[in-house]
Amino acid sequence: MPKYDQKAASRELLNTARILFTAVFGSILLAVAFGVTVEGAPVITLPATVTTLAPGLHRLGTARHTVFGLHVFDATLWVAGPRWSPTEAHALDVEASRKIPPSRLVNGVIDEMRDIRAADDRQRTMWKQSLDRILPSLSRGDQLVILCLPNQQTVIFHNGARIGSLEDPNFGSALFRVWLDPMASRQDVRNALLQK
């Protein structure tokens, strides 16, 4: 039976720890260099078409939206100041993880507006018609950005291309209430977006 060498065992353990540390640290560096977070999700950035209209926006919070445990999309709230303010430029960035038909997006938003009383029937009907015309079907990896400007115009982008806008000064406020209102149905999403 070979004799146990405590010094050799300690050296071997130290070498194994160094190799593991190097592998983990190297993986993190590669992930950052190639635009991937440690969790494997892509690093989200706003398209130049958005930042040209609203320079200085920075990420406040990101939330994963699931339905019955299925990952549907990630949403990121972008703000101009240290916190979300409805009077400053802000954007919601939706990154689809699966195919989402436009009717599901539009009906979900309009139904939530009704539930939290963010608008009356007439306004919701007008906004639904506008959104039905503007919003495309989303596929896995698509980016939909909804930008609210201080002049109360709401501009919508799909994969960096401007696809429409709503001039109604009440729309942006009502839309962001769907995500950020204290009565919103998904408080987990609200809290993650607002970093609460």
Describe the structure.
The protein folds into two domains: 1-41, no CATH class; 48-194, 3-Layer(bba) Sandwich (Chalcone isomerase), CATH 3.50.70. The longest helix has 28 residues, at 6-33. With 196 residues, the protein is an alpha+beta fold. It has helices spanning 6-33, 48-53, 102-115, 121-134, 171-180, 187-194; strands spanning 58-67, 70-79, 90-96, 143-148, 154-158, 161-166. Helix 3 runs antiparallel to helix 4 (121-134).
Largest sheet: 6 strands, antiparallel
List the domain count as a whole number.
Answer: 2
| Percent helix | 40-55%
Q: Estimate the strand proportion.
A: 15-25%
What top-tier CATH class of the largest domain fits best? Alpha Beta
* SS-derived structural category: alpha+beta
Number of strands: 6
Distance between the termini: 60 Å
Strand order in the largest sheet: 1-2-3-4-5-6
CATH topology of the largest domain, what is it called?
Chalcone isomerase
Note the overall shape.
Answer: globular
- Contiguous runs where pLDDT drops below 50 for at least 5 residues: 13-41
Radius of gyration over all CA atoms, rounded: 22 Å
H and E string: HHEEEHHEEEHH
For the residues shown, what is the average pLDDT?
A: 82
Can you count the helices? 6
